[in-house]
Q: What sequence folds into this?
């Protein structure tokens, strides 16, 4: 288990984290024309004890990989429990969301204790739902059900007034969105036109780790030329960033798969 974590999460995390450090140095020099004010110790932000999840200045999005690693570590200790107990633990994580996300901890442990509710639910019900969606008739019933539940949350005359805790109600809404997207996407599972989207899904960890190294310089260049940020410009920058991530992922999978979790 530890070997798998090292290969799929720890090595990619360290690779993108260390790769981003000189990038941050360059960006600071770009902005200030000096390195005297650069916080060289930001490399060690990983060891901070924080309650928030945006403290990894070197590469903020990497919080997700670190949090996922902690989730897997915690779940490895819980997975032998009875499924009913796991379900109750997931509900408790939701109920105590505000407490869990607001106490300082190292390595995103506090975030992991909250986000593990999605991990538990996926483990308990994910394969069952995917098998259900393979049957065309059951897929129609399931999709209709989750879309109806979604309507209960968004249509004004279906607003639910109850004694259900707000966190549970909010997460029920989130789960209906997730299930709606999963069920609807199952209708296009064999659509060849979605090849690019599948590619980004398979390589999402690479995109997560590398995208700001493309996005931030593009924004700097654009603003130095046009002195403004508009919706159209943001869309163009996003498209260019995705294009660069796409080709970096192809290169990384071929030349350095062991560094991006693909070995």
A:
């Amino acid at each position: 288990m530890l070997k798998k974590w090292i290969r799929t999460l720890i090595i990619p995390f360290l690779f993108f984290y260390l790769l981003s450090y000189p990038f941050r140095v360059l960006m600071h020099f770009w902005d200030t024309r000096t390195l005297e004010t650069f916080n060289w110790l930001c490399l060690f932000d990983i060891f901070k004890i924080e309650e928030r999840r945006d403290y990894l200045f070197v590469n903020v999005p990497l919080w997700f990989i670190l949090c996922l690693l902690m989730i897997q570590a915690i779940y490895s200790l819980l997975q032998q429990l009875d499924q009913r107990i796991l379900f109750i633990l997931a509900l408790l994580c939701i109920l105590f969301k505000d407490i869990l996300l607001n106490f300082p901890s190292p390595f995103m442990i506090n975030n992991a204790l909250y986000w593990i509710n999605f991990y538990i639910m996926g483990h308990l019900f994910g394969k069952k739902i995917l098998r259900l969606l393979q049957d065309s008739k059951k897929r129609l019933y399931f999709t209709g059900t989750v879309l109806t539940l979604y309507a209960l949350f968004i249509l004004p005359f279906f607003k639910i007034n109850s004694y259900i805790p707000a966190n549970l109600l909010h997460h029920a809404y989130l789960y209906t969105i997730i299930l709606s997207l999963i069920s609807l996407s199952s209708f296009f599972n064999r659509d060849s036109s979605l090849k690019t989207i599948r590619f980004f899904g398979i390589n999402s960890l690479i995109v997560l780790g590398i995208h700001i190294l493309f996005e931030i310089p593009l924004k700097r260049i654009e603003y130095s030329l046009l002195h403004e940020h508009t919706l159209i410009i943001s869309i163009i920058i996003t498209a260019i960033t995705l294009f660069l991530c796409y080709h970096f992922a192809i290169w990384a999978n071929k030349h350095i798969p062991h560094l991006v979790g693909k070995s």
About this structure: The beta strands are 49-50, 105-106. The mean pLDDT is 90.
